[in-house]
Structure formats: structure tokens, C-alpha cells
Amino acid sequence: MSHTVILLVVTPLMTAFLLSMTAIPHKVAYTTLKRIRMLLSVSGFAGLCVLLGTAGPHVLSGEVLTYQLGGWSPFLGIALRLDALSFLMATIAVLVSFLTMFYSFSYMERMRGLGKYDTFYFLMMTGMMGVLLTRDFFNMYVFLEILGLSVYILISSGEKKENYKASLKYLVLGSLASGLFLLAVGILYHVTGSLNMDYAAQGIQGIVERNPSVAALVFALFVVSLGLKSGVVPLHFWLPDAHSMAPSPVSALLSGIVLKITVYCMIRVVPFFGPQFYQGVSPVIASVGAATVLGGTLLALSQKNIKRMLAYSSVSQIGIIITGIGIGTDIALKGALFHILNHALMKSGLFLCAGIMIHQSGTRDIPHLRMGTPGIAASFVVFSLGVVGIPPLNGFVSKFIICYGAVKAQYDGLAFVILIASLISCSYYFRVVQTFFSRRQGEKKEKRRKKKGEKKENDPETPLQLSNWMRIPVYILAVLCLLLGLFPSVGLKAVELAVTVGGG
Amino acid sequence: MNLDMLTNWVNSITVGIVLLLIGVYGIMTQKNLIKIILCIDIIFLGLILFFVGSGYTEGGTIPLLGEYTLYVDPLPQTLMLTTVVVELSVTALALALVLKIYETSKTLNVKELES
Amino acid sequence: MGMSIIVKTATRFLAPIMLLFGVYIILTGHVSPGGGFQGGVILGSVLLLFFIAFGMREGRFTENLASLIEDVSALLLVMVGLVGILVGKEFLSNFLVGSALDTGAGTIPLVNTLIGLKVGTAFIVLFYTFFKYMGRKP
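^ Those are the sequences you sent over. The predicted structure of the assembly is below.
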């Protein structure tokens, strides 16, 4: 039996503790310490890639790898499972985190957070892998908390006032959501007698027939708690602050992966309640998704801060994914999963570009952004075209599949809402692109910076040198978006397998 | 309504739910940051009470496998140990963040921090 | 700095007893209530008692030593799980059951000890950090 499944969770954990040992103050020179940390981080990620690579051929041919922790039977113990859906999400998570780690090698030079930034980066990876692989409800809660705690610490490692406020706001609301999730798990355990997802699923079917109000209560608690963590519209108010006031690589990770992990939890949990229950509640989820799409788009229109605008755009794209889940047919689910993949690539690329552009212009306001290097500007254009949904890019394919699924399932209004939202998102993305082509602002900033250039040596806001560590991840993400858009069959085949094996 | 009917309803489960609701109400309305963090703790404590109370069976004794047949379920208690650790870490992190916020903003009032 | 002489004398007398009590709770975690986390908290609170009674002072048990013990015990904890893989069964399986080192509960006292060490030293680092923060020059 292969131990790949558990090693996927243990490798980032061990790397995190090894990196934490390098943070103890001792007499090693700083550059050697930096090299040791880089070496450990890269080898940790290399180990993850090797493990995913060895598990890949088995999983992609339809096999499901299960694992019992400690040899206990599934009813009593914790089971882990790697099927096509988990594998797809794990690949996305490892890919985006890997590229963002290279970006943060040079971006987080000055603000290292007592040297523990890398430790919590890898603890966050452990949390992600744990949530994606587990088949036990309480284990999912524990790993969601590990993920959440690491993310709160990563947000606050920018060491500025706004980072602390954003982290505290996210902490309070994330803990509330975790509390509600735990209440749902508690009621589920009290009624069904087991914490394992497969056994509890059978118990839930019985409860839906005998006592539908309890089932509705558990379902509502799950959807509200996971929705709060994902940022659906009545409960999204922590998201713009947390995502915009965090350091740029952390924003990329948050918008790119962490939101999607709680959406994945929703995909796992919701089919347990049986197809009839799902028929009943799918209008609710679909309308919540539509409200999120519209709310996020309309709120993004009035933003002047580029990172807040990108955060609200994240809200609306998550709404599109939740609409796809809410519709419930196979086609819509495929579109939603493909949109998870696409949005992870595009939104993290957008945030990484925004970080570079902010540090080259010295400001976050949209009218004052400079173009920076042409390559970064071109990548920004590629990512925005993808988010809006223009044909040669991947965003178009996933949005089209969701709209097609909506129309086929008699939900014409949803397709209309998604298309309207895409139209409106054109305006605020192209507002940023427009500043690339205007020269007047650029020249004024140039003169102002030349006057102030000598004064601000120690100020952390001085524009930093654009190193290759920061450019290459952005280019790789842009190339991936283009490739997925031109040859969508690769992504679609993986998503189809994920839906048939893992979904419901 | 006599005392018997009242004590039928006041058990761990209902008290836990009531504490949870008090905590949620507290997060919504309190203005001092320390009180909001205390309300997070109240939510978790209510949950712990709910969980531990849901494992109780009438007349159950200690869970020794070979000897007793009617025993109290030990699994929720074990799960709650983990939950207490998680709550501890969250509270410690929240208090450290509040210290840093107070150092830079000199206020603990949520309304003043929003502006 | 610190509190009165009665408190200081009582602390000097009580600290070894508290440490012993913490170790007792860790080691009998598999038969009576307690275990790794609870015993670790008691171990950590001995340092808090010293800080409150005597004022903050960095003695021989420095913060760096505590950090090192914390990371080493965390790594050892993961390795105990990995030994389960090496023996041939799954991760975190009870590989000591039935062998020569068995105390009737397999790997549970070992895991409890490691968790207790980690939690205790984590609390020590926490208290050092908080007290250093409160004592810094503004």
C-alpha cells in the first residue's frame, strides 16, 4: 500500500519545523541563513511535487488511494483519500504556492516577521493538504484551523498597522465560521454516531427521511460556515480588507487558493444529503451565487485602491463558482471546477502583478499607477482578459461551460447575470489597463520621484529593484493561462475525471 | 410550571447553545476589542459544553470496555481536548494582534479603528 | 522588582513540586485524565509563576533553548509517526504494542511526553515574548 497520501501531509509539516529551527537567533551569517532557508523551502516543494507525480498516474486512471491513520478501521479512525478531485485541487495548490514562494523570496526581503514567514508558509501548505485529503469531519475542522491560523500570521507579517487590523478582522470572522462548522459536526455526530464522511453519509440519508428539520439545520450550518470562509455576499465584508491589506504574495495565496479550499469543502459536504434534498436547495445556493456575482462586481466598480478592486473581483468570481455548484448538473460542476483552476492561476497572477506595480509606482490608487516593465503590464492584460472572459483565454471556457449548464437546467436568469457581470468587470479591469497607455501621469511621477529619490533611503515604500525571482512566476502563470485557453481539452479532461469520481 | 419541567430542559446541550448564541450576539454588538475576543471564547466554550453533553447517556458510567455495558461516550471529550488547544492558539494570536494594534493606534474601540 | 518576600519564598518552594506535578500528569495520561497538553501547560506555567514573583529575568533556561527544544520535539513527534511507516504498518500506528518496551499502552506515553515538552516550551517562549514586549523601552 502506498504511503504517498500521508507523506503529502507530513512533508510540509517537517519542512515547517526544520525552517523554524533556522529562525532561532544564532551566529550564522544572514546570507548563509537565507540560502539554507531557500534550499529547505525548495526541497520541501520538490518533495511535494515528486509525491504528486508518483500518485498522478494512479489517480488519473481512475484509481482511488485510501489510507487509514494508524491502522484503525474506518468507522473508528481517521481516513484519508486521494481521488481525482483532491488531486486536482492539490496540484493547483502546490503550483500556485510554489510560484508565489519564489516571488516572496525577494518581495519579503525587508519584512521577514522574525524569520518565521517560511515556517508558516509551510504550515499553511500542511493545512491545505490536510483539508484536501481528509475523509473525517473533525479532522477537516482541525486542518481548517491550522490553515486559518497560518494565514492570519502570514497576513500580519507585513508588520504595518493595516496588516494587523486586517488579520484581526479575518481572525474574528474565521473563528466564528469555524465555531458554526464545529456545531454542525457535533450535531452530525450526535445523530449519526460516526465522524467518517462515508459512514455519516449513510446516516444523513436516514435523517433526511425521518427528521428533515435536523438535516436542514445541519445543511444550513455547513453552508453558512463554509460560505463565510469563502466570501459569499451577505458574509463577505471581511474579504476586501483582509485581501487588500495583506502583503502581495499573501494576497495572491488567499485569493487564489484559500478561498477555493472552503469551496472544495462545500463540494464535498453538500452531496451527502442525497439528490432529492439537493434538488430542493439548489435554487437557494444558485441564487446566493448570483447575488455574490452581482454584489462583488458592483462593489468593485467604485474602488480606487487596486488591491481592493481585485478582492471584490475575487468575490464575484467565487460567486460564479458557487452558482455552478448550485445548479448541480454535471456540466455546471465541471465548469465550476475548471473555473476554480483558472481563477487560481489568474487571480494570483493579478495580485503578483499588482504587487510589482504598487512598488514601482509607490502608490495603490488606480489613476496613479505606472506601467512598470512592459512584460508585467502585458501579463496583467492577459490575466484581466481571462477574468473578463475573452475567447483565447481560459476564463472564457469555464464561464461558457457554466452558462451553458445554467441554460440547459432552465436557469436562464443565472446565465444572464454571469454575462452582465462579465461586461461590468470589463470596465474596472480596463480602467487599470488604460493607465498603462497614458503618458501624462507617468511623466509626473517620474519627476516627483527623481526629486525625492535621495531622501527616502530607509523608507520601506521605496521602489525595489525588480528581480527575476519576482518576474518569472508572473510570466509562467500568464503562459499557463494562455495555454489552458488555447488547448482547454487538457484541463477539461482532468475536470471530467474529478467530477465523475469525486463529485455527486 | 414547576421546577421539574424546568430542570428537564436545562442540561448541557441547551446551555451550550445559549452560550453560543450569547457569543454570536456579543461579536456583533461589542465595541471593545478585548470583549470581542472574549466573545469568541464564549462561543467555543458553549460548543464544548454542547459536545460533551451530547455524549452523556442516562446512568452511564466510565467507559471501560470489558466491564461496563452502559457507558458515557468518550469520543466527544477527546475531540474537545483538541478544540481547547485550537481555541487557546486563536486567543493567544488574537491578543498578540490586539497588543500590536494598540501600540500603533492607541485605541481599542472598533468604531475609531474603522476610520 | 516582583512581589513580597513571602511570595518569593513560597515560589522557590513550590516550583519543583509544580514541575513534578506536571511531569506526573504527562506520564499517567493514558490511565487517568491528563496527558500531553495538560501537563505541558502546567510545565509552562512554572515559568509564569517565576516571572510574576521575581520580575522578568532571563536565567539559564533562555528563550533560544526553549525554541530549540520546541522544534526538536515537534520533529521527533513526526518521526514517531514515520517509524510506523518504517515498521510496515501505517503512519502513527502503535508499534510498541506487544514489544519489549510496552507499558500496556504502546506509543501513547512517548507521544504524550513529546507533546508535553512541545507545549511547555511553547508556553515558555510565549511568556518570554509577552514579558519582553511589556518591558521594552517605548
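Helices of chain B lie at 3-9, 12-29, 33-54, 75-105, 110-114. Residues 66 and 72 of chain B are 14 Å apart (CA to CA).

Shout if you want it in another format.
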